[in-house]
Amino acid sequence: MKLFDQFAAPGQREQVLLQVGRRVVTQYLGERAIDEILAMSRTSMPKELKHRLSEAYGQFNDGQGAGIEILFVGVNGVHPPTRVAPSFERVISARQNRESLIEEARKSQIAKLADIAGSVELAEEISAKLVALDDLRRSSGSDSDAFIEAELEVQRLLERAGGEAGEFILSASANRWVRHMSERGLASLLQGQQEAYLAAPELYRSNMYFEALIEAMRESRVYLTPGELESLKVRLELQDKKAGTTVFDAERGEAFQ
After folding, report:
1. What b/e sequence results for 82-114 when a residue is b if at least 16 CB atoms lie within 10 Å of its CB, and e otherwise?
2. Helix 120-140 / helix 85-117 crossing angle, nearest 10 deg
3. 39, 121, 127, 171 - which has most CB atoms within 10 Å?
4. By the 8 A CB rule, do 28 and 52 touch?
């Protein structure tokens, strides 16, 4: 009580404390934007104001304090004037919607990067490598050893990631080898046919002719008749097309003998 009695005359003490408190609060509010006060600082304001008021009252009596202890600082209500309250609420609502959209976009970004590259960290690493690869292409060209090595490094990263991009590259690589081996087989076949033709052109043409004839007649009915007949009448039961024999299948021909 001694310090409380010393910092001002008996009739002025409460007024001095009130004026100092108002000054501290006014200074605190003046340092902040209206939106921050009305929307974002409501929870932190009481604690900060209590700290500032304690410091201000602590300077009384040459720094010995005012002999009082601040037990509680509360902010009962902070709101704009009634006539502008609807407009302020619309601004706050728009800001909240914006933050919500930003958060949803971040979640979507994380999910997409994880799907493509396996993880966000690896996706960011691959993205940085791709930027460096593009710079290297412009500076050194796409045929340089440095560019080829950097491109292979990016490909290895994508394959290691295990995401959609890695699966796509692995699938494309497998399809490439299947296509490569298929085309290589066709090239070898063509080379063999060319060598066979050069070795015996007439025999090669005859073989190709009869192979084409066999393929064309594979599912057809063929009947061989003497050429000297003046008229020919054939009466057959055509429900079973496999009835009869074939001159092109030795095993089936022997079965009917």
Report:
1. eeeeeebeeeeeeeeeeeeeeeeeeeeeeeebb
2. 70
3. 39
4. yes
Domain ranges of the chain: 2-78, 87-162
The model's pTM: 0.35
Dihedral in degrees, nearest 10, Cα atoms 109, 111, 112, 116: 130
pLDDT digits (tens, 9 = 90+) for 20-41: 888 998 888 888 877 777 765 6
**Residue 60: pLDDT band by 50, 70, 90 thresholds?**
confident
Cite the beta strand spans of the chain per DSSP E. Answer: none
pLDDT digits (tens, 9 = 90+) for 107-150: 888 888 777 777 777 777 877 888 888 888 888 887 888 888 88
Contacts of 230 (CB under 8 A, 6+ apart): none
Tokens 């594979």 belong to 218
> Identity (one letter) of the amino acid at 231?
S
C-beta separation of 130 from 150 below 8 A: no
